[in-house]
Amino acid sequence: MNILELILTDYTLQIVSLGSALLGIISGVLGSFAVIRKESLLGDAVSHSALPGIALAFLITQTKRTEVLLLGALISGLISTLLILFITRYTRIKFDSALALMLSVFFGGGIVLLTYIQKIPNANQAGLEKFIFGQASTLLKRDVWMMLVIGTVLIALVILFWKEFKLVSFDVGFAESLGFSTKAITILLSSMIVAAIIIGLQTVGVILMSAMLIAPAVAARQWTDKLYIMVILSAIFGSISGIIGTIISSSVSKLPTGPMIVIVVSLIVIFSLSFAPNRGLVWKHFSNKRMYKEINGDKVLTNLYYLAMNHDNTKHSHNISTVKPNLYLKGKVKTNLIKTLESLSKRGLVEKDYFNKWAITQEGIEYVENYFGKEEY
Questions:
Q1: Cα separation of 152 and 157, whole Å?
Q2: Whether 46 contacts 77, CB under 8 Å
Q3: How far apart are CA 47 and CA 131, in angstroms?
Q4: β-bridge partners, 358
Q5: Residue pair 73/198 in contact by the 8 Å Cβ criterion
Q6: Which burial class, exposed, middle or buried, applies to 101 when counting CB atoms under 10 A from its CB (0-12, 13-18, 19+)?
Q7: Domains annotated on the chain, with CATH
Q8: Radius of gyration for the alpha carbons in the chain, expressed in angstroms and rounded
Q9: Whether the Cβ atoms of residue 299 and residue 323 lie closer than 8 Å to each other
Q10: Which pLDDT tens digits describe the chain residue by residue (377 residues)?
Q11: Angle at Cα 329 formed by Cα 339 and Cα 301, nearest 5°?
């Protein structure tokens, strides 16, 4: 009840929650394309590359207005992204190597500039370090409005260029064969990802922003094979983690909001990796177990079929030791074989006689011949 009352009455919490939710939606939508394109580390490189832009924007303007600092971050991020694309396209350096190079160079330059700024005899420079780790509690109403406007533009562009982004993300060669300018589309999409990263720097910082960009998309990917569903789920996961992380941070004293948001979205990823249908680890475990039983059942059935075809009477029953010869039939192995035979019996493929011996039924013979071929026996 205290948390609910806090949500309904605390204006600061409402603003921060709304800003975090918007960030989650924007980063979730754009991050889906980064994951599909196998460019997940692009978010890490761009977010770190934004730091020198923030420092230079302050040095030039001597103001800490969020719009000015984020504009500097945007320019710096775009420059690093274009350099990465240029290096990858026109040199033999691979994409991951270009990312590592730009990340280290730009981030190192940003740290140097921030250190220099801190030594300037000017009290106005205090607080710039918040962009390293983020400080969501400093979000103002105008910051949220800015995120809303930029986010609306980005999502509108995603909807407008949906077909082009989808083609470039899955098959660049096919997109080129259809006459699309893949270079222009790639630059546009990368620029949009940069913009999504920049607006989240104040909330989660340059270090954690890559997780905010990639984690919701990774979680969404486990639940579906359709891109549009993945994008929607990613936006939902991002917004939920933003809201829940902000609420938990506000409920516990001195708990930072940005890292808490990342922890929540990481828990969503862990849950998705574990329990998502078809891809989840738990699902795969039981699916593999079921598949093993089916394969084991087919092997037992084909053994009975082979015995029946090599006997004068196809309905002749056999001991379980004959069903699986050369096997140490005691304990768990024997129990599992009996369970397999009983499972086949329920399907009407085998039957047990009065002496606990087993024989394949006519239905079982037809099953084996239909699925495995008669000529093999």
A1: 9
A2: yes
A3: 10
A4: 318, 352
A5: yes
A6: middle
A7: 10-279 (1.10.3470.10), 283-376 (1.10.10)
A8: 30
A9: no
A10: 466 666 666 767 788 888 889 999 999 999 999 899 887 777 778 888 888 888 888 888 888 787 888 888 889 988 988 898 888 888 888 888 888 888 889 889 888 888 888 877 765 665 667 777 677 777 778 888 888 999 999 999 999 999 999 998 888 888 888 888 888 898 898 889 888 888 888 777 777 888 888 999 999 999 998 999 999 999 999 999 999 988 888 887 777 888 888 899 999 999 999 988 888 888 877 776 776 666 677 788 888 888 888 877 777 887 777 776 555 555 666 777 778 888 888 888 888 887 788 888 888 888 888 877 664 44
A11: 50
Q: Is 267 helix (H, G, I), strand (E, B) or coil?
A: helix
Buried b (16+ CB within 10 A) or exposed e, 261-298: bbbbbeebbeebbeebeeebeeeeeeeeeeeeeeebbb
Contact 198, 184 (CB under 8 A): no
**Cβ atoms of 131 and 205 closer than 8 Å:** yes
Q: Which amino acid does the sequence have at 111? A: I
- d(CA 344, CA 298) in angstroms, rounded, equals 9
CA 33 to chain centre: 11
User: Residue-wise over 102-130: b if at least 16 C-beta within 10 A, else e?
Assistant: bbeebbebbeebbeebeeeeeeebeebeb
CA distances from 108 to 20, 48, 49, 102, 112 (A): 28, 9, 9, 10, 6
pLDDT (0 to 100) of residue 160:
94
Look at residues 223, 226, 233 and name the one whose alpha carbon lies nearest to residue 277.
223
Q: Which amino acid is at 298?
A: D
For residue 318, the cross-strand partners are 358
Per-residue tokens: 362: 């006519």
Structure tokens at 182: 């893949």
Rounded CA separation 103/41 (Å) = 10
Q: What is the pTM of this model?
A: 0.75
